[in-house]
Design a protein that fits this description.
Layout: H1 2-21, E1 40-48, E2 54-62, E3 66-77, E4 80-91, E5 95-101, E6 109-116, E7 119-124, E8 129-133, H2 139-142, H3 148-161, E9 164-169, E10 175-185, E11 201-202, H4 205-213
Length: 215
């Protein structure tokens, strides 16, 4: 049980840090564009030509397009390290969903992060608690002018163009996060929006983030 609680704690840290990483992607557009309905979104993807130089190509992604992948996550902080597996699922202009399983048994889900255009949801399955907030209410995102579109552009390009992502998070005790993707596809038979059981207790996102980032 002690190991499981430790795992759950670090899942929540990972989920919030993944949102924090979106700061690497510059925000496109302004709030004035939010009321405009656009069936497609233009993003930039990288391809290499015969000379080996990377050239930028624009690709239109239709709303509702799916991207799915298995993911292996490793977190390192000082002499502590934890690795577990999960899934990354994205439905363009709808949701970004990451689930992680128990690293010991590899079956039971220990946590889930679900980002939609208007909501940030993080679920701790082990301790039966969750965070449900908006980008405006989440201080760490609002202060950096981060919204769903910013995070989506970052994740979609990174996941499409690379099988491995590594970052060092500059906390008081730096954290190394490594993500490895495999079995990429476009499956559509998955539940995009999670309903939280009334057995779970809601937790304040700002307090949770502050306590973790200040460790």
């Amino acid at each position: 049980m002690k190991r499981m609680i430790y795992t759950s704690r670090y899942f929540l840290l990972m989920a919030l840090l993944l949102m924090f990483f979106s700061c690497r992607s510059s925000k496109k557009g302004t709030g004035k564009d939010k009321d405009v309905t656009q069936p497609t979104q233009t993003v930039v993807t990288g391809n290499k030509n015969v000379s080996g130089k990377q050239e930028q190509q624009k690709a239109k992604i239709a709303a509702g397009t799916n991207f799915t992948s298995k993911v292996r996550v490793t977190l390192k902080q000082e002499n502590k390290e934890i690795t577990t597996n999960g899934t990354l699922r994205m439905r363009y202009d709808d949701v970004i969903q990451i689930t992680l399983v128990d690293p010991i048994l590899g079956v039971a889900e220990v946590g889930r992060m679900e980002l939609s255009p208007d909501n940030v949801l993080v679920i701790d399955r082990v301790n039966k608690r969750y965070v449900s907030t908006t980008y405006e209410e989440f201080t760490e995102l609002k202060s950096r002018d981060i919204d769903f579109a910013t995070i989506q552009d970052f994740f979609w390009q990174e996941a499409q163009n690379s099988d491995q992502m590594s970052y060092t998070v500059p906390t008081r005790k730096p954290i190394q996060l490594d993500l490895k993707l495999s079995s990429k596809g476009n499956q559509a038979n998955w539940n995009a929006h999670t309903t939280v059981s009334d057995k779970y207790v809601k937790t304040d996102a700002n307090k949770l983030f502050s306590s973790m980032i200040g460790q």
